[in-house]
Amino acid sequence: MSESLDAIVAEQMARWTVPGVTVGILRDGKRSLHAWGVTSLETGQPARPDTLFQIGSISKVFCATLVMLLVDEGKVDLDAPIVTYLPDLRLADETAQAGVTLRHTLTHTSGIYGDFFDDFGMGDDALAKSVEAFRTLRQWTPLGSSWAYCNVGFNLAGAVVEKVLGLTFEQAMRERVFEPLGLDDSVYFAHEAIVHSAAVGHTLIDPAGDAQEIARSYPLPRCVNPAGGIISTVDDLLSFAQMHMNGGKLADRQVLSAASATAMQEKQTIAGNWADEWGIGWDIRWVDGEKLIGHGGTTNGFQARLTAVPGRDYAIAMLTNSGRGAALYNAVEKWALADNLGMDLRDPERVALTDAQLDAIAGHYSQPQAVYTVSVEDDGLRLEATSISALSGKRTTPPADHLVPVGEREFLVTTGASAGRRVDFFGGDGARPRFIRNGG
Question: What does the pLDDT read at residue 440?
Fold first, then answer.
């Protein structure tokens, strides 16, 4: 297996100029850990299997796990209004303020605008201060009406954890999840990561080119730690996945109840363009009749993916220090599932849409961090995007993507590093949609 894995990783690293990669595979109860490339283009320090990378939104599954531990202990109810625990919570929409629950936040169905990354400092009150500012965030869709990726929801869940336990979110995670699972190389802060072998992120110097540079700054705002702040290794991620596949148990320790571990892997809602379904924290895909649970992660110059196949006791963790790492991990995941399990992770079948159907979708779409221009092109659509990173403040206009239809309002990117990503359009009256979901 190693030679084939080496070949696919080397090919993808060269194609997408990814500086460093680690991959961990759990198969038949045995682990294999691998590393390629460097932790930094400036230092040239070799990556190691135990190198720490930012895992981004894979952190959300950890946050959901911590909440479910509190459910196990009877300290919170997934379906109780969050104002039960945060009575001072104020949101722009009165219905959402009164009714939003932890289940809404952990399944991306709150409808609240989700890409809020303002920095409220490194103090222990950073998360609470951030939540106070949620009153300014627009309610995009009615509470519970649709799935739309929402970082804010997980930060709100993190604030509930702090309130209920009387601990900082990071301390609660350390005591309730990291330590019981033996995740000795999982941390939240740069000063903790720096004593390990740690990678730095890289982004493109020019969106139309291939050359990369160090992504600055490294730390995330502390207030977004519940949604995306963990820095970890592939080995620790495999332990986390193994616990979830084993009914909440790792080795001889029952960390999470079997009922909660199962509930997290069950369909809570459909998931728009992201996956087939969404559980509690986990995304859910079905391939050849097998359920895959997982999550991806993106921060400033890092991209990561954790995928598990509970029915086969199999997991793969992939960490990269590049803003184009998703193209690599998608190829590696596809190869690994085919080579290790005989599974065919294929794209959905294309469909034909009429000119009128395509014309109805074409137009301009916007949100605070991005503007999209959609036009009809050949057998599908052309998507042009200008975005401002909520983390770095960097403005980018990458080359346009070509989209082919795989449903009436669902499309597949066929070009560049984003090839294979799904984009869909929803809402609105009649044939013309109101919203675009482009990676969430």
Answer: 54
